[in-house]
Each structure stands twice: as C-alpha cells, then as structure tokens.
Amino acid sequence: MAKVRAARDGEAAALTALVMRSKAYWGYDAGFLASCAPELAVREGELALRRIAVAENSPGRLLGVASLEVLDGEPGGAPEGEVARLGLLFVEPSAIGRGVGRLLYRDVLGRAAALGVRRLLIDSDPHAVGFYRAMGAVASAGAPPGLVRFEAAPAVLADWARAWTGGTPAVHLGNVAEFNAQFADASVGGEPRAAHDYACLAAFYSPCPAALVLPRAVPPGWVRLVGRQLGWGPGVEVLDGLAERDPGLSEAVLARPELARRVTGRGLPLVPWGRTEPYGRLAGLPWRPRDLRYESKSAAHALFARILAGGGHPGIALPAQWRAAHRWAAVRTVRARARAGLGTVLKSEHGVGGSGTRVVTPARIRAAGGARAALRGLPRGPLLVEEYVQGPSRGPRDLTYDGFVDGEGRPHEVGAAVMEVVDGAYRGATVGPGVVPAALEGPLLGFGAAVGRELAASGYRGWFDVDFVVDATGRPAPTETNLRLTGPSVAFMVAARLDVLRGAGHLVRIVDRVELGARLPEGQVELLCADLVEACAGSGAVFVPAIVTGAFDPAPWIGVLLAARDGGTLDAAEALVRAGALAVGSGFEGFSGAGEGSGAADVADAADGSGAADGSGTTNRAGPRPGRRPAGQSSKSKGERGLRSR
C-alpha cells in the first residue's frame, strides 16, 4: 500500500531519475528527453519551496513524485496565494496502473485546500486529458501551445459534514427495516427485503465511514469499488449478513455481545438510518418515542401550520389537510372534490418513499370506474386527505430541505435538493450548486431552518428533511418531514466527499432504481459496475453503485449515485448507466461506454487512469487494464459469508 510523505533532503537525484524514467515511458526520443531534462530536474534547494511530496511503498521504494507550487496570483485576478500549479506529477513506470498517480493528485488537492488555494492550474499534455477529466478537473482556457489547461477548485470538508460526526469517521448502522417496522403501519408492510436492499446506503451515512453494519450480505467487490471511488482508506470494516430475514438489525447486534463491543467500543459516532428503541439500547442513548412524533404526516402538517401562523414565511404555501374518520369518509371527500374538478392526495399517517400515498385526480377516478375503486390498494388504516397542489408550468416540482440537530440541540443546515417524484413515489434526487433555483432556495432554506429549530426544541436529535411541492405561483408548499436519513442526505454526503477529493462544485444525483436487463451472478454485477465506472469517467462523471443487493432480486435492479460538474454531463451519465444496465440482458461483456482512445481512467482497478502533468505539460499514462476475475466467479460463496470483517 503506497503512502505519501514530504520529500527529504538528499532525494533530489533519485527523484530526478524517477521523473526521467517516467517521461521516457511515453517513448520520447533521446533528443526530446535531453531538451526536457533541465526543466524536469529536481534540485535539493527546491524541495520545500516547491512543496514536493513522494509516494513510497512499505519497504520505502519511491513510486512517484508530485509538487504543489503556489503562485503570486494573476494581474487583476486572484490574490497572492490563492492560485497554485500542479508542477511535477510522475509515477515510476513499474507502478503505473496501481493508483499512485491518483493518490498523489488527491494529496496535492488536499494540501492546496489547507493552504487556502482556490484555483489549481494544470497544463496537460493531450495524452493526459482522460486522467484529469476522470480526477474531476475542469478544462479551461489559457494553456501554452500544444497543451490542455485544466483547473480544480481545492476544497475542505464542508462545515456541516464536520459537525455531523465531529470530523471523525463513524460506524454506520443500516437499520432501515427496523426504523420502518416501529411504526406498525400497513403501508410499510412486514417484508423487510426492500428495506434491507436500501440499507446498502449505510455506505454513505457520513463522508468517510470506519465500519458498515448491514443486515444482508453484500458483494466484497462492491465495497472495494465504492471505497476506491470515494477515497476510503483500507481500514473500513464491513459486518454484514446479520439479519437477512428479520427487520431487527440492532437486536441482532445486541444478541452477540462480542459483535456489539466491536460496533460500539471504538469511541466513534454510531450513525443509524433512524432512531429506534433497540438502537438506543445499542448506542446507550435514552429512548423517547415522542421525539419522533413529527414523523407523523398529520403532526408535521400541524407543525408547519404553527410556524406559518407566526409569520415570516410569505413565500411558503401550506396545502389544506383533513383526517378521514373512515374509508367511506375518504371516498366521499375525494368524490366531491373530483366533481369540482379538484385533485386529492391520500396519505397514510406514516410511509416511506411514497408508500401509502396516492394522487387521485378526476381523470384517474373516471379510469378506475369511481372513487371507491381508485382507493383500492391503499392501507386499511386511517387516511389523511390533502389538497392536490397544482404544479408550475416550468421548473422543478418536488424539493427537499436537509438538515440535522446535533447532540447539543443545535440545528445545522445542509442544503436544498430537487427530487424526482412520480405519482407521489420518490425516485431520486439531485443536489449541488444551482440545482434549486434561487427564487425557491431562499424561502425553502428559511422554512427548513425554522422546522429544524422546532425539532430541536421538541427533543429530536439527528438528521431530518422537509419535503415540498411547488405550486402554480412558484411557492414551495411543505408536505412532510422525515426524521431519519434519506436518499437526498446520501447525495449530500457523497457531494461533500467528492468536493474534497476532486475539487468543489459537484452535482450529485441518487437514482433509486435502475433496471437490469437480466439477473446476474455476483461476479458479473461487479464487472458491470466496473465498466460503468470507466464509461462515466471518460466524460468527467463519477459512477458509484449505491444499492447493489437489488441485483439479486427476482426483478433485478441497482441504485446508483452519479456526480458531474454540470447538469448536461449528469443527464448523459444517467442515460449511459441506464442503457448499460439494460444491455446486460443481451450479454454485458460487450458493453463499454468508453471506446479506444477515449482517455477513460482505469478507476475500476484503482489505477490513476493516466500519469500526470509535469512542469512542461507532458505526462505519464496508465498501461493496459489488469486482468479481471472471470464473470460469475466470486471470492466467497454466499454460504461462507454470514458474518465477516473486511
């Protein structure tokens, strides 16, 4: 395993030799190499000034070198110290393809962020375009002749992300089914399989986990791939297969005292999907069911009404809501509203992802043969009847605010996102700068913060969101709160992590369900994901498989996270992923979204993708892709994997 350290006195000659060997890797002739030698030389007196760092293996062999050279600013531009250049970045030829270049690049980006650098300039040989694009750098103008200029915006971890876990790694508990089951609502149902699939999102409960505790067994290759994409260290432990058919993950951990000590005895935060009584016992926290009262849709509506009654939120509209005493009362109300040409939203008191929620329009009632028929399939319990909010002609329709209340009762704002909701059912969300229009973002953030203060005062501690629809006049209308982690929260976590690894400004989209064209063996799912990583990297996008166990369900699917610098690239990446996932039905081995010469980085196999720029703008590039495990071959069989640590 390579590590990075500062260059030491006396290493200049060895580093110069490494640089020249790396340069020669491209097949340059002796005359060209000789002409580059003075510029590429590493001199003893420059090691500290140029902030030169090296990568080395455990025996101490040098594997690569990189420099971070802070500039004096630009005339009429950034102040001194806010602009830097990636000077040297060379990898020993025998180490190319092992992730050394990526390790060094990320180290330079992190050091630049710590110094307050806002722009990192990279003048790249055309051969390295694929590498820098895959690393998240953005093409820009101003390169010397024959080179390609890239820039990155170094970033530190967002304030809210540091506050979420105190700036340390955390242990993530995938207790999705356990959280759902505590409400005993018919809309949730008793089958934990789907919720256990969603528990894969435990990989993303904070920007960098120390351990994942999961109900179902997960493919080891999935954990490794996610770790490479998000820059995790090698020490992330996975404890899986703990509650395959039972919703009680915390109970399963508590039933094994040694395992419980491993989960809780690290002195690290324990982060659940949501709070439950068994989780409270596991974490040693008091359990107060009343703290979750605003998970109820009617209680949340009453909270919204109280906040709005106090004034101060003129940009927010609240839909009317009534409780139906029984099913016939709901039918009569829906029928009367339909006769007046009005749509209605029917909700159960609790529900996740749109379960227990149905939009009933006059057209749907006619198609179903009456109001009573249109309500079939809804939960048998009490229903809430809410006015249907007609949406805007343009712009986003479904929005969400995410925040959390820390252990001291202080609310923190995370941000706003655009959700994809189809017929009342959540399908995914997109977060990032500029995703929510400014005219909507201000009222949304103000109202979400007010909800956070009320939740803190009520005793709630943890993550929450507030969901909104936008009415025809462009006003956000709050519809519910979720007192737990959510799909959008996962997107925020990944955006915060990628901003540190690749530079600020990521848009991140979580797509809950991408259909697969066939049910695949575990090994082939891993190969598909690796191909999608590479295909997306070729266009500057990032692919992270988020929910992988759904691939083994009778109707196979996966959930994915995608990141890019702009909406067009993000949309193209989603289209590519959907097409690639469906293509597995006709033999996915031939699928490749990145053709020969595309410059796509070999991210899937931990390669740096290419070499990297030096002071003259020439580069080193990764060699051929290492061999892969044959399709369908797994490191361990399902039967061997009950409980393991990785």
Largest sheet, spatial ordering of strands: 20-19-16-17-18-21-23-22
Instruction: State which percent range the strand residues make up.
Output: 15-25%
Termini distance? 16 Å
Low-confidence stretches: 588-646
Number of helical segments with 4 or more residues:
19
Mean pLDDT comes to 86
Largest sheet: 8 strands, antiparallel
Class by helix and strand content? alpha+beta
Query: Which bin fits the share of residues in helices?
Result: 25-40%
| Mass-distribution shape | elongated
- What does the radius of gyration come to? 26 Å
Report the strand count: 23
Notes on the protein architecture:
- This protein is α+β, with helices and mostly antiparallel strands.
- The protein is built from 19 helices and 23 strands.
- The strands form four sheets. It has an eight-stranded antiparallel beta sheet with strand order 20-19-16-17-18-21-23-22, sandwiched between helices. The chain has a seven-stranded mixed beta sheet with strand order 1-2-3-4-5-7-6. A four-stranded parallel beta sheet has the order 10-9-8-11, with no helix packed on it.
- Strand 17 (411-422) and strand 18 (425-431) form a beta hairpin.
- Helix 18 runs antiparallel to helix 19 (567-583).
- The protein is elongated and about 90 Å long.
